[in-house]
Every structure is written in structure tokens, then in C-alpha cells.
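Input record, target 12 of the design panel.
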């Protein structure tokens, strides 16, 4: 399974969210695909005000609402 992680350079909140994902990656089998929102106009338009954004099997987690337990619950369902 691939978890999509939308980010931008120099984003402290993004670094913290990625750290959560990397920690969970030691417990669950998934890959992280990092997507810089500046690489595509549609990503920039959709996520600019919401990053970091995590997409787990179509369920989207936004910004400062991203928490370890919430991510873990989604991973357990997959």
C-alpha cells in the first residue's frame, strides 16, 4: 500500500507529520510517496492551505489535525 504525503519545502508541520508516518512505517507495511505540492498546479490549488496532507486509501487527513492515533486507526483498516 502507498500512503501519499503532500508537502512543501520549509514546512515544520510537514516535517512533524512525516516523522509520524515514518514511525508508523516501522509497525505497518506501507510505502510513503512524498508529493511536493509545487510540482503540479492541481496539487497546489487543492492543498495549498491545508498542508501537510496525508492520503490513506482515499481518506484525507489535513494539517494540524494529523495525529498518530488517527493515522494508526486508518492503517489498521487497510
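The sequence produced for target 12 reads:
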Amino acid at each position: 500500500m502507498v500512503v501519499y504525503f503532500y508537502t512543501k519545502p520549509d514546512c515544520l508541520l510537514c516535517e512533524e507529520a512525516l516523522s509520524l508516518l515514518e514511525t508508523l512505517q516501522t509497525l505497518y507495511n506501507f510505502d510513503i510517496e512524498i508529493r511536493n505540492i509545487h510540482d503540479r498546479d492541481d496539487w497546489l490549488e487543492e492543498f495549498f492551505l491545508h498542508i501537510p496532507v496525508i492520503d490513506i486509501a482515499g481518506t484525507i487527513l489535513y494539517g494540524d489535525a494529523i495525529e498518530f492515533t488517527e493515522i494508526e486507526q486508518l492503517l489498521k483498516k487497510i
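The chain is about 40% helix and 25% strand.
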